[in-house]
Amino acid sequence: MATQIFNKVRPAGAGAAAVLRRTKTTSAQYVDSRFRDPTFEKLMEKYKHLLKVISIQDLILASNSTPPSVSLDFLHRLSQRLHLNRGPAAFLRKYPHIFHIFNHPVKLQPFCTLTPAALKIVREESMSVENSLPLALTRLIKLLSMSLSKKLPLRAIFKVWRELGLPDNFEDSVISSNSDIFLLQDGNEPNTHFLVLNDSEDFKDCLIPAVENWRVVECCKEDCSVDRTDLKYSFKQGFPPGMRLKKNFKAKVKEWQRLPYVGPYEELGVEEMRRTKSRMMRMEKRAVGIVHEFLSLTVEKMVEVEKISHFRKWFGIDLNVRDLFLDHPGLFYLSTKGKRHTVFLREAYERGCLIEPNPVYEARRKLLDLVLLGCRGLERGDDKSNSVDQSE
User: Could you tell me which residue ranges the PORR domain spans (predicted)?
Assistant: First the structure.
């Protein structure tokens, strides 16, 4: 497990039993004892419903019918996998601004399709992704550059294509269209492929970690919050409101901020291969730098921990990434809402929204607005037209 940079963190008003002692807890207990941030918890409470909506939306868009639609019987067979505890019909009726239920004139059974409002958002997101292809290309180059071997399993990239803002046909539109940059390589096992980054000097200038931009801006400020001599290896810290930081903890954070480390795009030297205590501390900070950069590359500055774990070996991270996020509450926030572990880049958010939004994020946010709207804003007649008999 990751080396924790602190020994004690006491929430405001908490007793001695609430003190976090990393060495005396299991991984599950460590997750459960983390300090909750109400802003991120409220955001994830909304997102857990959005993720179910997106799963059904993808199934509808993948159908061959015109217009795209799927039967409720088909969704019922997937209820457990989609976490639809009360069945698909009950879930779909909760979001009439997104889904429309109708009786199929030929198959004579209830089907579900997307409303015009939802289809408009789908087209808007698709157009935003298309217009952002140069940025998506840069993100993919950076992701491969963080790999020690400059290659990654294609199945791992498929896990995060949406998070990176890649189009669903990125194999053709991004990889095949840039054969001078990327190379598809067959793996040793059947049906396994690797994406390899060709050695080139053309994109070396883009390999600058996102944290460097903050360091430059912070260094130019007159009221710089961090000692300028420590900025070279520092990260922006922002702890949850109400989290009381003890003097010992603050001292350890300051010491950790000064610790030199090898950046995510830099090559590891011989010194970093030695099994010493100082080397382990630097490698732990390098791992923080890598996951910080990974989150910075995502469109929404958030990702499921399970997805980022697929890259751990290729990035040379020997630590448990989930514990790594918990060890650094000033940089990351881990939420367990919706039966999944999701990590947020804390510095990228303010009051539950991205500080620097992008077109893809804004399109997805509109879908979230429709989810939050629920059944409100509909006439009574419209609500009745969007329902079928429960027996059907």
Answer: 36-375
Residue 276 confidence (pLDDT): 72
| Residue-wise pLDDT tens digits, 214-240 | 888 888 777 766 666 778 899 999 888
pLDDT at residue 139, rounded to an integer: 95
| Measured distance CA(167)–CA(135) in Å, rounded | 12
Q: 3-state SS string over 203-263?
A: CHHHCCCHHHHHHHHHHHCCCCCCCCCCHHHCCCCCCCCCEECCHHHHHHHHHHHHCCCCC
Say how far apart CA 49 and CA 356 lie, in whole Å: 24
Report DSSP state, residue 172.
I
How far CA 363 is from CA of 3, 101, 173, 187, 237, in Å, comes to 39, 24, 21, 37, 29
Closest CA to 52 of 25, 78, 28: 78
Q: Report how far apart, in Å, the C-alpha atoms of 354 and of each of 357, 370, 386 are.
A: 5, 18, 34
Nearest to 294 by CA among 306, 308, 279: 308
Q: Tell me which of 56-65, 84-93, 95-104, 198-207 is least confident.
A: 198-207
Residue pair 294/150 in contact by the 8 Å Cβ criterion = no
Give the type of residue at 227: D
Q: Cis ω on the peptide bond leading into residue 357 (within 30° of 0)?
A: no
> Which tokens sit at 375?
């059944």
pTM of the model: 0.86
